[in-house]
Design brief:
This protein is an alpha+beta fold. It has five domains: about 1-50, no CATH class; about 75-160, Alpha-Beta Plaits, CATH 3.30.70; about 180-335, Nucleotidyltransferase, domain 5, CATH 3.30.420; about 340-430, DNA polymerase, domain 1, CATH 1.10.150.130; about 450-550, no CATH class. It has helices at about 25-40, 75-90, 95-110, 120-125, 140-155, 205-220, 240-245, 250-265, 280-300, 325-340, 340-360, 370-385, 390-405, 415-430, 460-475, 480, 540-550; strands at about 10, 15-20, 55-60, 60-65, 70, 95, 135-140, 160, 175-180, 185-190, 190-195, 230-235, 270-275, 305-310, 310-315, 500-505, 510-515, 530-535. A five-stranded mixed β-sheet has the order 11-10-9-12-13, with helices on both faces. A four-stranded antiparallel β-sheet has the order 3-4-5-8, with no helix packed on it. Strand 10 (about 185-190) and strand 11 (about 190-195) form a beta hairpin. Helix 12 (about 370-385) packs parallel to helix 14 (about 415-430). The longest helix is centred in the middle third of the chain and has 21 residues, at about 340-360. The radius of gyration is 35 Å and the shape is elongated. Residues about 285-325 have low confidence and may be disordered.
Length: about 550
């Protein structure tokens, strides 16, 4: 047909369509040429399928309107799809034949639904687990999740997709991405860029997955600035270009594609990926320049260093060396984690879990610490019954989550509106009596130490309590610095033991020297000696501790035990 003058012709199996300008003579001539070609080849066209020329026709079950620039799923097919999805969302198992029938409907609808193919892939993979058509297939959580997505989408969808023309003709922003198999990945857009190193658990992933990671991350980082735009992604991997444009890939890539589909819908952006040769990829040059700095640090003492984005950092002269950058990253992460006490880590973990749950419920990015979002998070915690002091701790946990991700310090304390919201929470809770702290008397000899008495039924316990109270009071110790949660948790290198208590004189003791091995303010366990003197009264800490030591004996284990 093209040899006879048909300029634009498309076909799907045995369905053909031609395109020309409206009300032009070529439309009628194309129709004649198509019929003549069929007769020449011995084919019999179906008269009921013969449509046009017109600006609105049906092709392979989809209505195309070139004036309104719309693709439309016929009303009866949309109604059938909704009914089928309403039935399927309640099912837990089916026969392979039934699943393939559903897939046929979804595949047809995916021609009109922009992100449809992304949410069909797992159903296709599930259909391959059964060999025969009458074999049963159990619907996995992932499969039912995709069916639920389709059902929720179709509930409010009118069956129409607006055609905006060729994406590349509407490109308003260009971003270049690149990834290496061993070092890391990155992206650059305008004068913005980022680069990151692969985590150890991602080192074994295939290169297609790795090339897809910076694309998804770029949309996550810059998506708010790309609202209502068409983004062109330059990538030197042809497989990734096809995956991004088609919205489907292998099982490992589908998770990233679903994230990408969500971000596209959230920011109302369209993404078109274009292949570009690796040697002309602008991101590769940018990453190489960035790696020069890394090379200089890693090869300190050498000269003429240069970065190798694909395989780490090398010396220009002499034998090649490959610094253990991954090991450096693990060492940094280890030191970063050691900067917090164990109890603080537990408290922050609870706060971060609550924050992630809040972001999931409200469809917000967990690393978006804008002031108005934190204000909403704080008020959510109030609704859940948390006190003002606990809310401040939770906000500190959110800050820690931000720092752990390598982001800039959000400086929560400098957010004036959030500070005032917290002040208001404290005032409201105080008026209601919900956050009034219990009355705490000042620590004095009359009101504190005299509350500890020697119990008649267990004198040894009384001596231990009196010694611990006197030692904490006069030594300004935290309780956790001189006690142990349990005998099994005792650590000779961190906890107080019998050998850590020394006296200046056996016959006439006037002072104690307490060796504090570790504390909250001493995370590196340098240790500290605290000297406590005799007070020559009934509250004397030296007498209390020595009395307990005589009764306890010089055995191993925690100092305060009985």
């Amino acid at each position: 047909m093209q040899q006879k003058g048909v300029s634009v012709v498309f076909h799907y199996v045995d369905d053909f369509i031609t395109l020309e300008a409206p009300r032009s003579a070529e439309c009628s001539s194309n129709n004649v040429i198509m019929h003549e070609t069929c007769e020449h080849l011995g084919l019999s066209p179906e008269p009921e399928k013969d449509e046009g020329p017109d600006t609105a026709i049906s092709f392979t079950g989809t209505e195309i309107d070139s004036i309104a620039m719309e693709l439309k799923l016929p009303a009866e097919k949309l109604s059938r799809l909704k009914a089928e999805l309403g039935y399927w969302r309640k099912r837990r198992a089916c026969k392979k034949r039934e699943l393939l029938s559903l897939l046929g409907l979804l595949a047809h609808a995916s021609k009109v639904v922009r992100a449809g193919r992304t949410f069909v892939r797992r159903l296709i993979d599930l259909s391959t687990t059964a060999k025969r058509l009458d074999h049963f297939v159990r619907l996995s959580t992932e499969a039912r999740s995709d069916i639920e997505w389709w059902w929720r989408f179709c509930e409010t969808w009118n069956g129409v997709r607006v055609l905006l023309g060729h994406p590349e003709a509407r490109v308003s922003k260009v971003v270049a991405t690149d990834a290496s198999g061993s070092w890391g990945y990155g992206a650059c857009w305008s004068n913005h860029w980022f680069r990151m190193q692969w985590q150890e658990e991602m080192q074994e992933s295939h290169i297609t997955y790795k090339e897809l990671v910076p694309i998804v991350l770029a949309v996550t980082v810059w998506g708010r600035q790309w609202r209502n735009a068409t983004i062109q992604v330059l990538c030197d991997n042809e497989a990734v270009v096809a995956i991004v444009n088609q919205g489907t890939g292998d099982k490992e890539c589908m998770h990233l594609l679903r994230c990408l589909a969500f971000l596209k819908a959230r920011f109302n952006i369209e993404i078109v990926s274009t292949h570009i040769a690796g040697k002309t990829n602008i991101s590769r040059c940018t990453f190489k320049e960035c790696n020069v700095k890394v090379s200089y640090v890693a090869c300190a003492g050498g000269s003429n260093t240069h970065g190798d984005p694909g395989g780490g950092v090398r010396r220009a002269a002499g034998s090649e060396t490959r610094p253990d950058i991954t090991g450096m990253g693990r060492a940094v992460e280890f030191c970063f984690q050691q900067g917090l006490a164990d109890n603080t880590k537990k408290a922050y973990a609870s706060a971060q879990k609550k924050h992630l749950s809040f972001c999931t419920d409200t469809h917000l990015h967990p690393l978006s610490v804008k002031e108005h979002i934190l204000c909403r998070f704080a008020t959510r915690l109030v609704e859940e019954g948390l006190a003002h002091s606990s809310i401040k701790c939770y906000l500190a946990g959110v800050r820690q989550l931000h720092l752990a991700g390598g982001w800039k310090d959000p400086e929560i304390c400098q957010m004036a509106r959030l500070v005032q919201v917290l002040r208001g929470i404290r005032a409201v809770q105080a008026k209601r009596g919900g956050s009034i702290s219990r009355l705490r008397l000042p620590i004095t000899t009359d009101q504190k130490l005299k509350t500890v008495w020697v119990r008649g039924d267990n004198p040894q316990e009384g001596r231990m309590l009196w010694a611990a109270a006197a030692l904490c009071f006069f030594g300004f110790f935290r309780l956790g610095e001189i006690t142990v949660p349990s005998a099994e948790a005792f650590d000779m290198g961190a906890h107080l033991s019998f050998q850590d208590i020394l006296v200046d004189n056996i016959t006439k003791p006037r002072a104690l020297r307490v060796r504090l091995k570790a504390s909250k303010t001493d995370p590196f366990r340098k240790g500290l000696d605290v000297h406590i003197r005799h007070t020559q009264d009934e509250l004397c800490p030296v007498s209390a501790v020595l009395t307990f030591m005589v009764a306890r004996g010089p055995g191993a284990g925690p100092f305060f035990r009985y």
